[in-house]
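pasting for the record
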Amino acid sequence: MTPKRRSPLPLLDESGATLQSRPVRKRDPQQPGLPFDPMPDRIEPCLASRRPAPPKGPDWLYEVKWGGYRLAVHIDSKGICLLTRDGQDWTHRFPGIAAAARNLGVNAAIFDGEAVILDDEGRSDFAMLQNALGGRGVSQEAIFYAFDLLYLDGQDLTGTELSVRRHLLEDLVPAGGDGAIRLSEELDIDADELLAEARRLGLEGIVAKHRDRPYRSGRSDDWLQIDCTESASFMIVGYALSDSAPGGIGGLLLAARRGYHWVHIGSVETGFSAKDADYLRKTLDMLKTRKPVVPLKGKDYVFALPTLIAEIEFRGWSEDGNLRQTLYKGLRKVQDNAAVYDMKRHDAR
């Protein structure tokens, strides 16, 4: 999948002349002919609304959904400041991104984007980023994917449409870069094909953005998030004991079929209520076995005969063959082993 970028059109009035920004507030005394907007200390981020399917049409552009930490990169004469979604200063936690920002050659700007760590396949891995930043940790290898430009050299750009902001952004952060600050590129491909490809690659999802809308803080329908969730049936082969979790279940151990054998594919820790946990604990205890059907060891593991089949929502697979970001959706009403996920589907990817 080769990304292609479209060249956005300039803003034109009815006569065909390019529209000019309205003069706002005071003018820069050093450049009296240019309108000047003071650089804001913080801009509340624009948030995407979730949708099950992407919108269609030329009014929308599509990008990869990056699974990381939302950051605003502020550059001015005082230095560099990296702000989190809720306004915390995390400049010291991303020294590589801060250094790259200093080298952009920009006098004053605010970039909106996502800090991520990429796995060996080039996918963002939120767990890797969390581990790197555990406690008060620092991530030298994090990358910032810039997807919007909110302020540039005295100009507040939040009132202009996305196509204009993207045009300016691409001049500052060209496509195809491999540094610590990179462009989140527009992907010129049919939306359904893009979503299918994102699922095949095990990505987080895609984001659709309306080209003609200004930057609106808070959640709106100008930006839409379509997640790459999959759903399949897996056998419950035990559970992990927990003193604090509801029902004493810290997670359900899951397995898939491979021929006549069971293969451990990870666990699920979320999605079941206290009532679900109580039922699962009682039922699995009745199916308890000392000999696990998958090669697992752990003093807190309770193994069960392969009988209960759960529907699990997940977002792709890890390199070691485990499910990523699992969510328990419930037990199958009909316990049919043929319905359990066959690893042939995974091996064929």
